[in-house]
Design a protein that fits this description.
Layout lengths: L7 E5 L4 H12 L3 E6 L2 H13 L3 E6 L7 H13 L4 E4 L14 H29 L2 E5 L12 H24 L2 E7 L5 H14 L3 H12 L7 H12 L10 E4 L8
Parallel strand pairs: 1-2, 1-4, 2-3, 4-5, 5-6, 6-7
Helix pairs in contact: 1-2, 1-8, 3-4, 4-5, 6-7
Length: 259
Amino acid sequence: MKTLEGKTAIVTGASRGIGRAIALNLASEGANVLLTARDAALLDSAVGEITQAGGSAASFAADLRESGAAAEIAKEAQTRFGGIDILVNNAGATKRGNFEDLTDADWQDGFALKFFGAVRLTRSAWPHLRARGGSVVYISGSGGRTPGAQFTIGGSVNAALLSFTKALADQGVTDGVQVNCVNPGPVRTARLETRLSAIAAAGNMTREAALEAFIRQEKVTRVAEPEEIAALVGFIVGPHGRSLHGALIDIDGGATKTI
């Protein structure tokens, strides 16, 4: 029997990269998955891949920056699949750059989606998760524990998610909801490929040489694949991961240098 048979999961930022990989992984283990992001076409493509493989999935295009979107997503999952057992808050990318060049709008946008979007959706889903002994996973990032000068927004947002995870996990003990956070380091996504292309162009080097230079610069063992993050999330919310609670789990090739 598949480990998540009969469960319903919401995955945000599910149109590409880590979120898409997580959605596919959960569906492969039998979960009904509601994929949400802003790009309807990419969402439909991911849903098509899941259903073609025999899984159960649906898409709901929404922008979690909008205050009413979270409630709509939770309602859609409840209406379509009858409940919510798993919530994976993955949506959100933050702007990199020199601190003096980052505007108020950049900071507000960074928090609007990745932090406040996750808070709102968790609040909307919490009654359903409490009723079914569900699980919440936040996808934060290694920058929350090991900040860098070019990642002031992202590091701050990620750190806020780490603190929120710990606080909500305390409530989860009372309400019977599992709460954890995963901190990826460099992952092979379209965003990373853009950075590698810039490194290659600046150094007049091959794509392979740019990747090696990036790994040396970041002081990590390797760049992860989205499927590796997805496998970890699948373990956490599955039957063998239930003792994980309030955990801040680094999967970063050694990027985190702090205790």
